[in-house]
Write a structure and sequence with these properties.
The protein is an alpha+beta fold. The chain has one domain (about 1-10, about 60-245). The protein has helices at about 15-25, 80-85, 120-130, 150-155, 220-225, and strands at about 5, 30-35, 40-45, 55, 70-75, 105-110, 115-120, 135-140, 155, 180, 190, 195, 230, 240, 245. The strands form 6 sheets. Strands 5-6-7 form a 3-stranded antiparallel sheet. Strands 10-15-13 form a 3-stranded antiparallel sheet, covered by helices on one side. Strands 12-11-14 form a 3-stranded antiparallel sheet. The protein binds zinc ion.
Length: about 250
């Protein structure tokens, strides 16, 4: 289902209904989304302000699951250590030790509306879950031989990978276990003349909002802001819309 960007002071009744249906609940009267450049926040609508005085941006979500959100944090067991060694993990001093990493099993909404088990950062994914934000899949990047390009092409959501930033000798934020890539096909890395992964070409136009996309302003990125994550979509040198990093 495509969603649209609705703008203007008042929307025709038919469009208002469509907005309510997409969000699952009618837009709440007392709040609206304000884009303040880097940050989006919800604030009370001044009583004197006309309805829809600001652009109303609708994001695309699926129905929120009724099953409770249960995530698990585990120590890395021997099988996992073996699985990641010399793939996403390297035995070198700058790489976090096994006991500094955790294996998280995280329920998330899938594109077909089912519930699957995958990984990483419980509160963030709980918020995505209750919002009905779909995630294609979550596998360890090791399943793609720790090859970031292969993982992105597969629209894989992943986090830890002891690697350098492509084309440099600098450690990636993923190497420190601080960054997560979510739905890289729906949220490709973009510069005016380049887009990665190429499978994300269909999502180059960020005005055509579809499920699984991060867009600002919108409730998903607002939740990311609220929880304190930095979103790569705000970067100036390139838009890294699938990348979230804990930079506090
Ligand atoms: Zn990333």
């Amino acid at each position: 289902m495509l969603s649209r960007v609705l703008e203007g002071r008042r929307q025709p009744a038919r469009e208002r209904r469509s907005c309510s249906r997409l969000l699952g609940t009618p837009p709440r009267e007392p709040t609206y989304v304000v884009n303040e450049g880097k940050r989006t926040r919800l604030q009370a609508r001044p009583t004197s302000a006309p309805r829809f005085a600001y652009p109303l941006i609708v994001t695309a979500l699926l129905a929120a699951p009724t099953a409770p959100y249960r995530a698990e944090r585990r120590e890395l067991d021997a099988a996992t250590c073996t699985r990641i060694t010399n793939a996403s993990w390297r035995d070198e001093p700058r790489c976090p030790r096994f006991d500094q990493l955790a294996y998280l099993a995280i329920p998330h909404v899938t594109f077909d509306g089912a519930i699957a088990i995958a990984e990483r950062t419980i509160e963030l994914f709980r918020r995505l879950y209750v919002l009905g934000f779909p995630i294609r899949q979550m596998k360890l990047v090791d399943d793609y031989a720790a090859d970031d390009d292969r993982s992105m092409s597969a629209d894989n959501t992943s986090a830890f990978n002891f690697r350098v930033v492509a084309g440099t000798n600098l450690l990636s934020q993923h190497a420190r276990g601080l960054a997560i890539d979510i739905n890289p096909v729906e949220n490709p890395w973009r510069k005016p003349d380049r887009l990665v992964p190429s499978e994300g070409e269909a999502f180059a136009d960020r005005r055509v909002i579809r499920p699984g996309m991060f867009v600002r302003p919108g409730p998903v990125v607002a939740a990311i802001d609220e929880l304190g994550w930095e979103w790569g979509g705000d970067w100036r040198h390139a838009s890294d819309d699938h990348h979230l990093v804990w930079s506090r």
